[in-house]
Please model this.
Amino acid sequence: MILGDRKFVEVPGSKTHELPPLLVRTKAGVRRLDRVMEMANDLIEQEDIIPLSPTESELDHERRKMDLALNLIEQYQGLVLHWRWGDDVLEWIRQCETTFGNRLELRNLLNADVWPHAGRSSFVTLLEDKAVETGGVALEKAVGMRLTFRQPPPLKCFSNQFLFYLHSSVANTAYQTWAGMSQGATSSLPPERFHFEVVNMSLE
Model:
């Protein structure tokens, strides 16, 4: 079925299919913030990001470095949060793949291939079509971040340029490359034919 410029999978029958719940961690979960702060300060010192100006006092210089360190930590926590969402989405896709394989009417809708098959990007599109609330996390960037890093590296592994400017383009390029590797055009899953719950695992 084609609607506008999108092709949708033909799902047999008319019933709505229940998919596994999407379990998400909505907090970065960075432990030992004191250690992260230390790494941020080391990064600033090693790359000489804020040299001392002849016109400023030592106190002002230290204050500027502290502000930048806090900014770096904020950027890093955002990166880790995206990674966590991407990890949770890939795990959900894996569970959906099992669900499809166990149901006769859905079994033939997915091509068998090495995990994670690029055609599984249709599940990411399904999440977007369902307008899943992410708290500002971009799903494609999140999955791209998870495809790039098996585990979120510590802050000391990144340059300030990556944290401030490059992480979005790297993650988005990773996702688009992955999604574009499928054999032929990837068809979307009709959102009205599938239902699932989103469970926030970070609630206290």
Observations:
- Helices lie at 33-46, 58-102, 104-107, 121-129, 139-148, 160-179.
